[in-house]
């Protein structure tokens, strides 16, 4: 009997046999569900050539959401295997692939100047959603359960100075250059800014993963070096890692294709409702950031605010520092015009968001009021977009 209990007890008595059996059943259910959904989503996408109706679009939208959730699960499996901060970096990169693929596919499929502001609207929406919506919600979720949560200040500070610089280069500076009017860069300016932004993102990545990796690890994890830690490498086999990588690619790929397929329906609904077309950019950014947001919320709920902030800032930096250079190079090569400069209203909201984030995260600890203020800014941003 003692031997049987010992085989079941693998975390200093924190789990008994019954807990392990429940955990394994949940894990099996999640694995089966997240394995089937991407495959069925691909089949439904192929079936769109045969079935074409409003009801079928609803089915496609459900598979889109299911594929996003499957992507979250498999990215978390990979993240647990790789460890921090490599896991969050991988998820941020995967989300950026979705964003770039979606924006470019829509821009290439449109005619004339229909999508001249699509990249700007989507990237600006992604930044605002991350800085106010996701980070604000994570702080509130964590504060409701744990009152205060701590994080490593050096990592957040490094991310903020990099993000602020790239945001100004990409979204604000184009309004004040004189070589091209209307918030546009010339092709030469666009390529130069794209290279600078890419260089800053790569520099931040090197800091995060190698030179100062400790900046992006939770203070609690640093203080518990001598305590036994659950070995994720033993819990997640190499075979499961490879399968999750393949399923993650399948999930991300179908998300891009389904989002592009449904983008016309989304645009039609937005126009029919009398809302501005910039709302399309918010919807696209919301779909793209859903996997990252869900992962960040779950981390905050588990008292891992450091992981939430790593995900949020990493995604914001990748969204603007990695996707804009990729889109810029393709737009110059194909001759597609791209407006990047935001208006004064958006500039004020963006500046306020960066200021509040900087002040709120300057102490290395979070409280619920910080999150409430950020969510308030996010709601104002949505309201002003819909009712300009």
Structure description:
The protein is mostly helical. It has a domain at about 90-220 and about 275-385: NCX, central ion-binding region (A middle domain of Talin 1, Up-down Bundle), CATH 1.20.1420. The chain is built from 15 helices and two strands. The chain has helices at about 1-10, 15-45, 55-80, 85-110, 120-145, 155-170, 185-210, 220-225, 230-235, 240-270, 280-300, 305-320, 325-335, 345-360, 370-385; strands spanning about 150, 365. It has a two-stranded antiparallel ribbon. The longest helix is centred in the middle third of the chain and has 35 residues, at about 240-270. The radius of gyration is 22 Å and the shape is globular. The model is unreliable at about 1-25 and about 225-235 (pLDDT under 50).
Structural class by secondary-structure content: mainly alpha
- Low-pLDDT runs: 1-25, 225-234
Radius of gyration: 22 Å
CATH superfamily grouping of the domain at 92-218 and 276-386: NCX, central ion-binding region
Mean pLDDT: 79
Strand content: under 5%
Number of helices, counting only DSSP H or I runs of 4 residues or more: 15
């Amino acid at each position: 009997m003692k031997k049987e209990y010992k085989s079941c007890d693998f975390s200093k008595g924190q789990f008994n046999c019954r807990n392990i059996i429940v955990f394994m059943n949940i894990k099996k259910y999640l694995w089966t569900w997240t394995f089937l959904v991407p495959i069925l989503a691909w089949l439904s996408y192929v079936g769109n050539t045969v079935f074409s109706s409003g009801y079928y679009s609803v089915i496609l939208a459900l598979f889109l959401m299911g594929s996003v959730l499957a992507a979250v699960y498999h990215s978390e499996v990979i993240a647990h295997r790789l460890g921090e901060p490599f896991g969050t970096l991988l998820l941020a990169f995967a989300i950026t692939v979705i964003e770039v693929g979606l924006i470019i596919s829509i821009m290439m499929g449109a005619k004339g100047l229909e999508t001249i502001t699509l990249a700007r609207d989507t990237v600006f929406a992604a930044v605002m959603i991350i800085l106010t919506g996701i980070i604000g919600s994570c702080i509130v979720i964590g504060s409701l359960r744990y009152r205060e949560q701590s994080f490593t200040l050096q990592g957040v500070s490094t991310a903020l100075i990099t993000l602020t610089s790239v945001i100004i280069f990409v979204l604000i500076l184009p309004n004040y250059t004189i070589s091209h009017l209307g918030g546009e860069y010339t092709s030469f300016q666009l390529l130069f800014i794209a290279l600078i932004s890419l260089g800053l993102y790569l520099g931040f990545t090197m800091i995060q993963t190698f030179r100062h990796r400790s900046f992006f690890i939770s203070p609690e994890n640093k203080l518990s070096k001598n305590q036994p830690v659950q070995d994720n490498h033993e819990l997640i086999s190499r075979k499961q890692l490879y399968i999750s990588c393949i399923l993650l690619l399948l999930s991300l790929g179908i998300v891009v294709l389904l989002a592009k397929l449904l983008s016309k329906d989304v645009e039609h609904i937005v126009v029919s409702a009398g809302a501005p077309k910039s709302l399309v950019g918010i919807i696209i950014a919301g779909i793209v950031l859903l996997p990252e947001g869900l992962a960040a919320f779950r981390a905050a709920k588990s008292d891992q605010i450091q992981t939430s902030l790593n995900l949020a800032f990493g995604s914001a930096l990748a969204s603007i520092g990695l996707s804009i250079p990729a889109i810029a190079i393709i737009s110059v090569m194909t001759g597609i015009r791209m407006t990047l400069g935001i208006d004064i209203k958006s500039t004020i909201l963006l500046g306020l968001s960066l200021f509040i984030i900087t002040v709120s995260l300057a102490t290395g600890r979070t409280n619920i009021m910080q999150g409430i203020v950020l969510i308030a800014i996010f709601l104002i941003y949505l309201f002003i977009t819909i009712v300009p």
